[in-house]
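Tokenise the fold.
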Amino acid sequence: MELLIVISIVGIMLTVSLISMSQGRIEKELQVEANQLMAVIREAQNNALTGKKASDNVCGWGIYVSAAATDDYEMYYNTTTNCSSDTKNYDSGGVSNILGNYSLKNGVTFPASGGKKDIYFTIPHAIPYDDGGAITGNIQIQLTKGDRDYYVCVYEGGLIEAKKSESGC
């Protein structure tokens, strides 16, 4: 009888710890992918701050997540002969040049309801823009896996951070 009680307690403890470990693994996968996305956004920001020129007439650097994307995003730069006419967003018509394609891993995705995200930094001050307009407040990119969410937040002052939050940035 006592052995049966001990086996039952051990079984309950094992079940609770397995569930906890599974949730911890999901949180870690989200955190890793949010940190990777944040690093790519910071690279675009640093390229703008340092005036990195991938070719002639570079006006700025950005990160683009299309509305149809579930796990892909791109780093790009815009070129034009007159930076004052730069659209300050991803332009598939020819001024945007893709520098790198990236994919989220381990089942982490951008939610379908997240919509298009286009964060752009102008040269030389890395002023952040959201789809062509100056960021006021912040822009958030949501990453999700199962019922868990993580957010990468870009603020109007240029701060970029990753957050585990119920309500976003």
